[in-house]
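Can't paste images in this forum, so I'm doing it all in text. The chain is below; anyone willing to post the predicted structure tokens underneath?
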Amino acid sequence: MSVQRTTSSPRRIRLRDRGEVIGVGGMWLAKWSLCLAAIAVGAVVLGWVLEKLWVITLPVLLAIVVSTVLWPPTRALTKRGMPPAGAAAVTLLVFFTLLGGVVALIVPSVVDQAPELANKATQGIQQVQNWVKGPPINLQDEQIDTAVHALTNKVQQSGTAIASGVFSGVTTAGSMVVTLGLVLILAFFFVKDGPRFIPWLHGIGGGRAGRHLEEVLGRMWDTLGSFIRTQAVVSLIDAVFIGAGLLILGVPLAPVLAILTFIGGFVPIVGAFVAGALAVLVALVANGPTTALIVLAIILAVQQIEGNILQPILQSKSMKLHAVVVLLAVTAGSSLFGIVGAFLSVPVAAVGAVVIRYLGEQIDHRLEQDALLDAADAIAEESATPADTTDGTEAEEAPADEPAARS
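Text version of the structure:
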């Protein structure tokens, strides 16, 4: 028995009121504004907590940086059969012995020659000022005196701080001895027990959360280690080539400028710019404009080789950050935590980029799953729709008490 086809009444289309559409948009904006406000409040609270616990936070961050450097040799020793504690102790001892020897050799000379470096930089600024007053630039005194005066005072006041400031930032944790002691102890345990931390966190976080946590932390560790090792190699190459050029040209304070170039390499863009500017100013005052132009050409050539050849080869593509992000990170880090903040800002930004990329991957994966489920539901609905017969009748309706099967 077939049922007669009935014509249904035309479906009404409800037009939405303009005010209703505006209200929906306003609610969406209000919801996201509250979310952003909550995130901002959380960031402020987190910053306040870090400031209060800086005596603990700084050694932990420095110990993590040291651990990324020491982990490859420690892992190589453990693969050769050495116990983890012994391997960690050996690598730490060698590392801090080398570091202490380098510091003992270069820091006194750098601190002693820093006032002379500041004086030559000041003279270079004044000479540049005299040049820009003449043709073809012809700037007026009022246009440059204020900026030059402020810059000159800054250089003169920071004569000894140019070199010693790199090491004095750690005193914010109470004292250098306490900080280095904590870094030594923490780095030992991080390197010794590092492989146990992630499984432990996985167990605490549970199945799904632990899996995500393990993946993110693994990527963070790889990214941080890649950054530190790459910057060390690149900074060393920059310091060697620029220092060799300064020595060949007979520029005074060449060893100090090479050391500052190496240290500045760990603060991308800003550090290289400051170190290069100091080298050019010293060459300008001591050797004249021709030597200064040659020094500038050497610095630009080394920087171009670094940016276009060395970093693409040594540095993973996932580590790359836009120059704007690097500048903003260095500016924020240096303004909040000084020299130490400038040093740690780019690694923190790189780690944050890892988290953002992972969240983006998870969102894309979730959207793909939702799209597949929607397509499956649409196919199932089409399969469950009664098919029309050739004689103009519809298929008999299934009894009401039979549940519809869903494929």
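The longest helix spans residues 323-384. DSSP finds eleven helices and no strands in the chain.
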